[in-house]
Amino acid sequence: MIFLDKAIIVGAFSTRDDFRLYEVEELAKNRGYLIVDKLIQLRRIPHSGYLIGPGKLQELKDKMKKYGVKTVIFVNELKPGQYFRLQKELGLDVNILDRVLLILEIFEQRASTSEAKLQIELARLKYTLPWARELVRLKGFGSEKMGFGSLGGYPYKAYLSFARKRIRLIEEKLEKLRRKEEKLIMRRKEIQLPIVTLTGYTQSGKTTLFNFLTRESKVIGLGPFTTLETCARRVDAHGKSFIIVDSLGFIEEMPQLILDAFHATLIELKLADVIVLLVDVSETPSKMRRKLETSLSIIADIAGSERPIIVAVNKIDLIGDSRLENALKLIKRLAPQHEITIISAKKGVNIDYLLRRIVDKISNLKV
Ligand code: GDP
Ligand code: MG
After folding, report:
1. Residue 46 CA to chain centroid, in angstroms?
2. Cα 118 to middle of ligand 1, angstroms
3. pLDDT at residue number 3
4. Is the CB of 166 within 6 Å of ligand 1?
């Protein structure tokens, strides 16, 4: 893996095991950042000025200097004012990301259609517009330049009017593109092999399973879907061949503003002939239930209700028999119409059985 940049993760939470921290760390690695340190401050209410208190802020500056870091990723979502104060404190050349901007960067990296690209740009413009407004308001801010690392150094007033025009233009373009994307999806038939997409929440084990299944397989050309090629491999098993696709999957607490962009990145689901939905069985029942319900409803929204789904209950190595039994009861109740298979992607348990089930589903596909 090529690392883009060294980064420090910063967060302010009321408990030490806030799930967002793990998720952002995973997402940052996914994006290719090399995480050199994490600065977590326990506080009931985040500091209104800088999210973290002045002491922590100094610590952050020291660490950035020590490691030569120019990217800081905040786990929390930043308010416009916080963003600017931080930019001013840390330096205009520092790339400040929060959870939303990080997610958008990842979407960008994976966007394979022009619709997805535009949706992402639109979300970014809308999300950062209040920051630009704030900058205009905070006249005392030293420089004429916008911080916004990846947005470049527009003078801020020009930026505001540029952003507004661009938002209108993108909205018009998207309207026209919708039909075009439908056509692209039709072209999936140009890919001669069935597509099996791994999906599920971040950390459910998709990539682990993908790597296990594709240890000996080859990279494959995907015609009109070249951007998917990095996460797609051909698998030959039990007399059948298919393409397995690892996907970005679902992210917890997706901010409303980036939902459209998120949906546009789900092309892997739209293309799927068979969907393997991973569930992390080591999580609490309430979390599992919430995630499974959400996953199934997103899949139904994006891919319709016809696609065969295999629910792969993963990480069974982490729990005992009675917990597994209860979890399976819950999952069966939530997904009564789908096939359910238990696996451990990490330990390679039951994977051959899962492959048989996939092949069985492929054999039954209506052409
Ligand atoms: P993804 O975000 O869905 O792609 O999840 P990853 O494949 O990156 O896995 C997330 C974490 O869960 C990693 O630390 C994996 O090593 C771990 N993991 C995945 N599958 C299993 C499993 O079957 N058992 C255990 N114990 N850990 C697993
Ligand atoms: Mg992954």
Report:
1. 25
2. 31
3. 53
4. no
Q: Enter the tokens of residue 95.
A: 């790339």
Q: What is the 3-state secondary structure (H, E, C) of 295-322?
A: HHHHHHHHHCCCCCEEEEEECHHHCCHH
pLDDT at residue 316 in the model = 98
User: Which residue has the CA at smallest separation from atom 28 of ligand 1?
Assistant: 346
Nearest residue (CA) to ligand 1, atom 6? 205
Q: Is the per-residue pLDDT at 36 higher than 80? A: yes
User: Model confidence over 178-203: pLDDT tens digits?
Assistant: 777 777 777 777 888 999 999 999 89
Mutate to test the pocket of ligand 1, among 208, 209, 313 (most ligand atoms within 8 A of CB): 208
pLDDT at 95 over 50: yes
Provide mean pLDDT across the span 208-225: 83
Give the ligand at the shortest distance from the Cα of 276: 1
Give the C-alpha separation, 44 to 147, whole Å.
29
- CB of residue 47 inside a 6 A radius of ligand 1: no
Quote the tokens at residue 9: 């993760």
**Rounded Cα gap, residues 122 and 54, in angstroms:** 34
Which two structure tokens, joined as six digits, stand for 104? 């958008």
CA distance 116 to 137: 32
Angle at 77 between CA 6 and CA 175, to 5 degrees: 100
For the chain, strand residue ranges (E) read 5-13, 33-42, 71-74, 95-97, 195-200, 232-237, 240-246, 274-280, 309-314, 339-342
Chain mean pLDDT for the chain: 86
C-beta 265 within 6 A of ligand 1: no
Is residue 18 within 8 A of residue 75, CB to CB? The reply is yes
C-alpha–C-alpha distance, residues 292 and 89, integer Å:
42
- Both structure tokens of 141: 């801010």
Answer whether 202 contacts ligand 1 (Cβ < 6 A).
yes
Task: Return phi, psi of residue 173, to 5°.
Answer: -60, -40
What string of H, E and C letters represents the secondary structure of 178-205?
A: HHHHHHHHHHHHHCCCCEEEEEEECCCC
Q: Across residues 6-33, what is the average pLDDT?
A: 86
Q: Ligand 1 in contact with 342 (CB < 6 A)?
A: no
The total number of residues written for the chain in this structure: 367
- In which element (H, E) is residue 334 found? helix 321-334
